[in-house]
From TrEMBL:
A single GO BP: regulation of Rho protein signal transduction
Protein name listed in UniProt: AKP13 protein
Any one Gene Ontology molecular-function term assigned to this protein's record: MAP-kinase scaffold activity
Gene from which the chain derives: Akap13
Any single Gene Ontology cellular-component annotation: actin cytoskeleton
Superkingdom classification of source: Eukaryota
PANTHER family registered for this protein in UniProt: A-KINASE ANCHOR PROTEIN 13, AGAP007712-PA
Length: 247
């Protein structure tokens, strides 16, 4: 969901009725994004969430009613796996793994500044949204035979302990998310009591109020509709659309 800016050359600056699109062609998935004009020489759009790390071909296309679609320029574009994606993947795989979850607690000892926490929260929550989680994935881990009476650390404890508001919201929407709220860890703390103890008022409201809304974030600017092998995403902030199709 990064912002992509396209600079047009003098020859490409054309009439107002010309509409520009970017088409990303990967090995298994193709994306088409609309653009918005910032000024006669610049366009803006949102980068699609791709399904793997690879270099894809991206074409800038121009469309005008009554005329054939024109490919204005072509370039390569590389999708990479960043630290936020690595972190999300690590957390997803260690759901229910007590050794791994206890290891994450060392982050709490050197609490980062609020601005860094906000940045981390946004990036990791976005990365989680793009992970291909297995159908049976659960916030509490694979072993569903454990009862709520067994003290243990959960992903929800991790998110609340660091004050990750958006990641907490994401986990609440997943299987096992609500169930994690009543689980005590070895110190007897639930995610709800942790939020209260640390003075995370917004987080506590998110966990306890019925009908609490999603926190403001980059992800709330987007709305996605899935249909079979296709998905359409509308980014309200830039008012651009993104069509993704399996090739």
């Amino acid at each position: 969901d990064s912002v992509i800016t396209v600079q047009l050359t003098e020859e490409d600056k054309v009439e107002d009725d010309v509409v520009f699109y970017l088409v990303f062609t990967g090995s298994t998935v193709q994306h088409c994004t609309s653009t918005r004009k910032i000024n006669p020489g610049s366009l803006e759009t949102i980068s699609p969430g791709h399904d793997c790390c690879e270099t894809v071909k991206v074409a800038l296309c121009a469309s005008r009613e009554g005329h054939p679609i024109l490919v204005v320029a072509e370039e390569s574009f590389q999708f990479v796996q960043d630290e936020a994606y690595d972190a999300a993947q690590f957390l997803a795989t260690c759901a229910g793994n007590q050794q791994a979850l206890n290891f994450t607690r060392f982050l709490d000892r050197s609490r980062p500044p609020a601005a860094d926490v906000d940045f981390l929260d946004e990036k990791v929550a976005l990365a989680f949204r793009h992970l291909k989680l297995p159908a049976e994935w659960n916030v509490l881990g694979a072993d569903q035979s454990l009862t709520e009476n067994i003290p243990r650390e959960t992903l929800m404890h991790f998110a609340v302990r660091l004050g990750l508001l958006r990641l907490t919201w994401f986990l609440l929407q997943q299987p096992g998310g609500r169930g994690a709220l009543s689980i005590h860890n070895n110190e007897g703390a639930t995610p709800v009591s942790l939020a209260l103890e640390r003075g995370y008022q917004k987080l506590h409201q998110l966990l306890t109020e019925e009908g609490a809304r999603e926190p403001d974030s980059w992800s709330t600017l987007s709305h996605i509709v899935h249909s079979g092998d296709y998905s359409v995403k509308h980014h309200r902030g830039l008012d651009v659309y993104l069509l993704t199709a399996e090739a």
